[in-house]
């Protein structure tokens, strides 16, 4: 159901307030061909109302001829900022960038953050942004989960469907998403709500069974039958199952890159305002599926790049796979039991 401009302006003011935007600071709104008009329109009003020095940087599309879909995450790699020194300088000199285009897993995003600029990504439809409006309590949940994650060296995930996989952790920092950017050089995504880290290189081993009802992204589809993945020394070595497995295998093969099979980030959702069922209500081009990534108790793992965490893998293929009904054990602590969050903080 649509939301009003007044609601969206208020939502932007709320999120920017949590992000500690102050009058006189510079904000650059980064846009592209798929930027939602209402999101942009209301962001311009809210930032001006709050006294910011506001600019808009509109970029041309990139990689459309390479991607197998129109999803913004269907093909990573070069961005409209690659080799574009004037645009990059403008973003690095801003106090905050509102990314309404999508710079995820790009070297340019890393460079902008290293300059101290904050980046807030917001590309979901306005009604999703409003429903999952972040609160200070969302940060507390994620920070508590992060403390557990940073205290351990292993993560083990099991399920009745047959998943039994172990990951070494600790070599990479924890990714914390709560929906606002309250520190210099911080990136976040409105909406969100999860914590994750990247598996140590070569450390992942076991079996992952993507069960009926689990979700593939950027395909943005519910799996209709189990997909069995064999994981050895950090890479998926076998994909078995029916039609869904064949589709996933063909998609990954299309990139002609062995790094697409590497295990990337691993973690779990904490957002109670996100829902597993929401994806079924949207056309595939309307959403990037943040409900699926963030709903409380999902086990989210991914494949492909790890450059955003300081790794060397820059594969253009990045697949996020939120799974239900898993048990996640971090070190000796169970944090998710059969799809339900059971431990929120260190005791």
Note down, in words, how this protein is organized.
- The protein is an alpha+beta fold and 347 residues long.
- It has 2 domains: 127 residues, Response regulator (Rossmann fold, 3-Layer(aba) Sandwich), CATH 3.40.50.2300; 206 residues, no CATH class.
- The strands form 4 sheets. The protein has an 8-stranded antiparallel β-sheet, with helices on one face.
- Helix 2 links the parallel strand 1 and strand 2.
- Helix 1 crosses helix 2.
- It is globular.
- The mean pLDDT is 95.
Number of helices: 8
Strand order of the largest sheet: 14-13-10-6-5-18-19-20
Q: Tell me, briefly, the overall form.
A: globular
Rounded to the nearest angstrom, the radius of gyration is: 19 Å
| Strand percent estimate | 25-35%
- Pairing-aware structural class of the strands and helices? alpha+beta
Brief description of this entry?
By secondary structure, the protein is an alpha+beta fold. The chain has helices at residues 5-18, 37-49, 85-92, 107-114, 126-131, 136-150, 243-253, 290-294, and strands at 26-31, 53-58, 96-99, 118-121, 154-159, 164-168, 174-177, 187-189, 194-198, 205-210, 215-216, 221-222, 227-232, 235-241, 263-269, 299-303, 319-323, 326-330, 333-337, 340-341.
Write the layout of secondary structure elements.
Elements: H1 5-18, E1 26-31, H2 37-49, E2 53-58, H3 85-92, E3 96-99, H4 107-114, E4 118-121, H5 126-131, H6 136-150, E5 154-159, E6 164-168, E7 174-177, E8 187-189, E9 194-198, E10 205-210, E11 215-216, E12 221-222, E13 227-232, E14 235-241, H7 243-253, E15 263-269, H8 290-294, E16 299-303, E17 319-323, E18 326-330, E19 333-337, E20 340-341
Parallel strand pairs: 1-2, 1-3, 3-4, 4-8
Antiparallel strand pairs: 5-6, 5-18, 6-10, 7-9, 9-15, 10-13, 11-12, 13-14, 15-16, 16-17, 18-19, 19-20
Helix pairs in contact: 1-2
């Amino acid at each position: 159901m649509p939301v009003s401009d007044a609601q969206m302006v208020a939502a932007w003011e709320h999120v920017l307030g949590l992000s500690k935007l102050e009058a006189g600071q510079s904000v650059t709104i980064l846009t592209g061909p798929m930027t939602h008009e209402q999101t942009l329109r209301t962001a311009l009003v809210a930032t001006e109302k709050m006294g910011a020095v506001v600019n808009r940087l509109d970029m041309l599309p990139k990689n459309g001829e390479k991607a197998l879909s129109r999803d913004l995450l269907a093909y990573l790699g070069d961005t409209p900022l690659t080799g574009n020194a004037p645009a990059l300088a403008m973003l690095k000199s801003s106090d905050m960038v509102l990314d309404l285009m999508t710079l995820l897993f790009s070297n340019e995003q890393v460079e902008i953050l290293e300059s101290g600029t904050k980046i807030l990504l917001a590309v979901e439809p306005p009604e999703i942004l409003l429903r999952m409006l972040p609160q200070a309590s969302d940060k507390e949940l994620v920070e508590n989960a992060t403390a557990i994650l940073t205290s351990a060296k292993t993560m083990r995930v099991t399920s009745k469907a047959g998943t039994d996989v172990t990951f070494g952790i600790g070599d990479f920092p924890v990714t914390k998403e709560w929906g606002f950017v309250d520190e210099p050089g911080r990136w976040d995504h409105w909406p969100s709500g999860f914590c994750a880290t990247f598996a140590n290189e070569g450390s992942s081993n076991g079996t992952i069974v993507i069960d009926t009802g689990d979700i593939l992204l950027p395909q943005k589809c519910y799996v209709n039958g189990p997909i069995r993945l064999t994981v050895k020394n950090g890479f998926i070595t076998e994909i078995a199952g029916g039609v869904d497995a064949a589709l996933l295998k063909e998609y990954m093969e299309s990139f002609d890159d062995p790094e697409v099979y590497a295990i990337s980030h691993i973690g779990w959702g904490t957002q109670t305002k996100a829902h597993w069922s929401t994806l079924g209500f949207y056309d595939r081009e309307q959403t990037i599926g943040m409900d699926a990534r963030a709903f409380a108790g999902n086990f989210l793992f991914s494949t492909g790049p790890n450059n955003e965490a300081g790794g060397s893998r820059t594969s253009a293929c990045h697949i996020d796979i939120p799974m239900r009904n898993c048990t996640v054990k971090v070190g000796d602590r169970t944090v998710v039991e059969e799809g339900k969050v059971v431990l929120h903080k260190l005791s």
